């Protein structure tokens, strides 16, 4: 079974600074997807960024980028120029390609606070 | 973009009663829907996977007779919490997948906060 580990329960960042959220995972598959989701106080799940395992290039979405290290099974999220609206819980998630592996497996999440 | 509507957004019920939560895909056909449970400050735990027209697949430890899931159409799945107890109080979230596994994105509902008194 796949597992996703987020070992840091909380992090804090100064507004306009950069923060990196860590995530590791375990799988025996060679093809899969990795995601970062944001959950603000409204509890709505918002997709931040997605990475296909077969792509070597790290995904980027505006101020959000990932450092995907397939061999190390590491998938960290970097938030640049942090804004107050970035404060939320962030979940790293894994999804396989087919069948039972295509369900989303979430890490425990990390609570990010942004200091003004 | 694809929208998933979850209703109600919050509900309070008395112990022993049943509560139904609906998850609708508004502008796409959802071949598969997923139901999650989330306790405060914790992760989303998958409860079950439902495919249109077939029985739901429950995760280990989830009581299928307590959490009834029906996926009667390609746009609607329902979760019924039967004989609810205070320990069933939680935040329930659905997600819907458009198309086959693989590259198909998942779309989340806004969740339902259930409080059992």
Helix/strand layout:
The complex is a heterodimer of chains A (116) and B (117).
Chain A: E1 3-5, E2 10-14, E3 19-21, E4 24-26, E5 32-39, E6 46-52, E7 60-61, E8 64-69, E9 74-79, E10 88-96, E11 104-106, E12 110-115
Parallel strand pairs in A: 2-12
Antiparallel strand pairs in A: 1-4, 3-9, 5-6, 5-10, 7-8, 8-9, 10-11, 10-12
Chain B: E1 4-7, E2 10-13, E3 19-25, E4 30-38, E5 44-51, E6 57-58, E7 67-73, E8 76-81, E9 90-98, E10 106-108, E11 112-116
Parallel strand pairs in B: 2-11
Antiparallel strand pairs in B: 1-3, 3-8, 4-5, 4-9, 5-6, 7-8, 9-10, 9-11
Short description:
The complex is a heterodimer of chains A (116) and B (117). Chain A is an all-beta fold. Chain A contains no helices and twelve strands.
Task: Write a structural description.
In chain A, a hairpin with a 4-residue loop joins strand 8 and strand 9. Chain A is built from no helices and twelve strands. Chain A is an all-beta fold. Chain B is mostly beta strands and 117 residues long. Chain B has no helices and eleven strands. In chain B, the strands form two sheets. In chain B, strands 2, 4, 5, 6, 9, 10 and 11 form a seven-stranded mixed sheet that branches. In chain B, strands 1-3-8-7 form a four-stranded antiparallel sheet, with no helix packed on it. At the A-B interface, strand 10 and strand 11 of A face strand 5 and strand 9 of B.
């Amino acid at each position: 079974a796949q597992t996703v580990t987020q070992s840091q329960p909380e992090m804090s960042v100064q507004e306009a600074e950069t923060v990196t959220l860590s995530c590791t995972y375990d799988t025996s598959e060679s093809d899969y997807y990795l995601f970062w989701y944001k959950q603000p106080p409204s509890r709505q799940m918002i997709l931040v960024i997605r990475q296909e395992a077969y792509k070597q290039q790290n995904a980027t979405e505006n101020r959000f980028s990932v450092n995907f290290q397939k061999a190390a099974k590491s998938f960290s999220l970097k938030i640049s120029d942090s804004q107050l609206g970035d404060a939320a819980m962030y979940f790293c998630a894994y999804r396989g390609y087919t069948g039972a592996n295509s369900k989303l497996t979430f890490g425990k999440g990390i609570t990010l606070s942004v200091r003004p | 973009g694809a929208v998933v509507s979850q209703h109600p957004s919050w509900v309070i019920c008395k112990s022993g009663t049943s509560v139904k939560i609906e998850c609708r895909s508004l502008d796409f056909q959802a071949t598969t829907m997923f139901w999650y449970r989330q306790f405060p400050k914790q992760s989303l735990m998958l409860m079950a996977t439902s495919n249109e027209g077939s029985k739901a697949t429950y995760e280990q430890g989830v009581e299928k007779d307590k959490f009834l899931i029906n996926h009667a159409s390609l746009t609607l799945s329902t979760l019924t919490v039967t004989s609810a107890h205070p320990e069933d109080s939680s935040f329930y979230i659905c997600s819907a997948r458009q198309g086959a596994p693989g590259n198909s994105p998942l779309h989340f509902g806004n969740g339902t906060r259930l409080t059992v008194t």
